[in-house]
Fold this protein.
Amino acid sequence: MSETAEHDFLFAGRGDGRELGAYVVAVDFCRASGAAGFGLGDGSVHIGPAFTAHQAHKGAVLSLCADVTSGFLTGGDDGKLAHTGTESTVLADYGSRWVEHVAAHPEGVRAASVGRALHLLDGAGKPLKSLAHPSTVAGIAIDAKGKRVAASHYNGASLWFVGAKEDKPRLLEWKGSHAAIAFSPDGTHVVTAMQEMSLHGWRLADGQHMRMSGYPAKTHFLSFTAKGRWLATSGAESVVLWPFFGGGPMGKAPSELAGGDDVMCTAVVCHPQHEVVAAGFGDGLVLIAEIASGKVVPVAPPGRGGISALRWNANGSMLAFGTDKGFCGTVDLAKR
């Protein structure tokens, strides 16, 4: 891949990008307009296709996701939870505490972590409840139906029902520090990335533990394929894929895609419909790989900083990425 000519990358003919000058924390696509939104370390949110800038926070954007119906939800180190669409508005102010993680679901659920607390709000911004955890919340995920929210923390994760009248979590325990967290698409499994450069999973039906190890670096990105057959992860010199079928992942070795250049894979995201993975690397390379065949398609060349943010749009026709040096790009992958 390192020998691929620049004109062979899809970005050359189908891409658009900007140098925006600050670390790209996250990217997502607006549910209403389909525009890409990039959250940056200088507190700004840039929305495509013109990369229009909005100052959402006085400090850094710490997290960003598509909001419930339109626009983007962000958390900042200024203690604010904000919505950005045509302009930026503050939904909640948590004082001096950082709003480290945010999530939103089209059923009308917003979640924001502030220290040990996970705050839930409805689609109108009304506070629903605050859920306390034994230590700082290090990652949050909402299941596909918007009924449950999971929060990772030290020694495991807590699983809550959003609509419960009595808030008692199901505690998923495993010693150590847990960060990135994901639900499987069918809601049967929860997986976390650990400080110890491994993954831990729970099968919710019976609490069965699943340990996935062997990473040379921390895993920051977890992404299930659309039907939940594979879990793609960053944290190695290739895309690591764990099988969640045929009794896996326990007792089964992972598959690897698109490695070989001795550069760390820093971001992964699975296609919303097909068994295809987009991956970003520490040198700025972005590619797409088909799981069944192993075929790799080069998307964006190295050289603009390590990939720190990566996302498909809802139907998988557009891919957006951002780097730790402040480059933001989108690539139109629709058939022509």
In short: Residues 276 and 290 are 4 Å apart (CA to CA).
